[in-house]
NACHT domain-containing protein
Amino acid sequence: MAEQSTSSNLIITDAVLNQSPVINDAENVTINYTQPPSTSSSDEDEWNSVIKLKKLCISYLEKEGELLHLQGVIVISTLASHFYHKMRRKFNERNSMRKLMDLCISYLEIEGKFCLQGVSAKEEIPVVHPAIHEINYYGKDKVPVVERYDPKGQNELFKDKIKKVVRFRDLLDQKDKFISIVASAGSGKTVLSLRLAKAFSLLQRLCIHLKFMDANYEQPLTLRQLLLDNMFPGHSEEFYTSCFSWMQKNADKIVLILDGLDQAQYSLEKISPKINYNACVPVKDLVFNLCTKHFFRNSLLIITSRPHAVLYLPEVARPQVTYALGDLSLEDTKELFLAFADEDLWTKIKKSSSQMLSMCRNSLMLQMIISSNIHLSEDIGDVSTPTRLFATVMKNLTYSRNFQFPETMDELTRKLQVLAFAATKHGKVVLTAKELRDGGVDPTTIHDIVVQLHCHRHPISSRFLEGNTKFFFCHQTFQEHLTASYVVYEMPLGEFQDFIETSLFQEHWTVVRRFVCGVLFDLESKAVSGDLQMKKEILKKHVIQQLEFISEKYMNSGQKHGVGTKALTDKLFDLYACVGEGKDSSIATKAAEYFPTTILLPRLMNSNLVPGFLYVMKHVTKQLDWLSLGYCNLDANSFHEIASVIKEMKPGQIGEMKIQGNYLQPSNIDDVIGLLRVVRDELWMGLCFIDDDGMRRDADLDERNQLQSALNKIQTGLEVYVDLDTTLHTQK
């Protein structure tokens, strides 16, 4: 007799599905259930079946690597094989296979890193990986009602939540039973999950990798159907029974990786009942029981997701540990960049638009930037701001692969602008299939809009939208750019004026505001007339008013003494970012006129804020009493950009300057020397350099000698505070 219980008005049976296919379109499939025969399996049968299952899992991983153009998995296999043959003579048959595999993984960690966005398996490419941070983020945080739009980037979201930095190797040695890996679009969640699956397989674990988007079944399933029958169709009932029996007995040898929680069409917001292994229930109930460790208690469960989706899990089903993927290092960024393009393009971008290099540290954005610049002439100034970058990418979409779509890209773009504005206005990052249909967009064809490029060395392609029942733009910035385009080109003039006066300068519209300024102010050299010209004048008037108002409040706030000024600092530097995005010199001149004489950069100086700040600084002619870059977490590249502008200012134009507490490289000593003629009274620079272990340090003896030599060559009363005990000044 079939066991029955009730959950969400559904009759639960122990029926199973015979050889059902993997289902991508859950709305249009019918599953026929059949009663399984009563069978039992021996230990030997189970083990033989599991060996076969492991081979199927590895075959799946390698197939996914090829289909997704993800080279990392294949590189790992190649490196491990190379290392095995290199080391096997040092091992005999009595040596532990686990020990050998441990050395393989250690070798991978030392000799190569992980490729986030790869290419053809036939080509050799560098292996790089993102930063991995253990964070304290979810805990008992309030569950959001919808997938919320947040104008802050992921780095800002997690910077005050980081507990420690970890290595890929640490993820393979988990003591916890349930972990999550979160990251924004394009950061490498899926690729990292595939690499983990491959590595766990090398470590003799049974690792099943399942994408949520491939498991959006509307019909109820058993756990076996979800993990085995549907994942690996076409095998015998005895095979599935033996494998599942072994899994229940050996949970400590199992790793389950569920990729892309944000792509699930169901919500896990409500607590599901505990069920047995044979219950046939909605997929959300199976996932919930996996998360609470009711199933496979001693297994390792790994879920990847965009950050907001994990908050849907009730507290009892939250991960024990969460890891956030950060940016690529600058060195890895360059290495990956050169795999797709040549060094000439890297040099051109670094010279003409170094802001783009900081954006390249997200793998998806790196692809977009190469796509927009690869075929341009020697002068790449046309793609020197994020606004120009995304405008170029949108233009490139006109030439993208576009199957079955009945309209032009321009017509589609106008519809997406309306949808993006509505989503951003209501604080959402998700478009449902119904919303797309209501907006005149066919959700079954939108998948075929692909950002595609044939570079000098490797092809690059990324989907414009992700999802099958819930749709995300491949990067949130696309939603923001389309929203800004709607405001500029489609919003009626009267509504536009009201929007500027009541909404645009609120924090919610931070990134959209920059794009609106970038589009309208950048129309200076073009023939602008009618409503568009009036919109430009309206926006210009309000930006200048905001600059004057915020600058005056900033000056009156006692900034030098740190009296409650963080919010004002953020507003001021965001306005500078808007000015830099539009590159309107008349607005920059006004911003320089209102520029505070004592100013402190934000403690978390985002690299995207640097270009706007510098664009304004180039127009500053007044005397500055005090400028602090102290403890702003500036890296070597950002500091170099800032110093390059400051050293062109008039001698003695800055009274006191602080640069301590940053992350400068030894090469930045030349930048510091360039400041000596501009700073008049005091330069504070303790703990501004970084050592080989990533720790802050004071200037070493050689750097101090270089500073002293430079001071002796100029006539100045400047005192340089190298550390708490050492002061340099001109020696006569």
Notes: Confidence is low (pLDDT under 50) at residues 1-39, 66-98, 107-123, 140-146. The first strand starts at residue 6 and ends at 7.
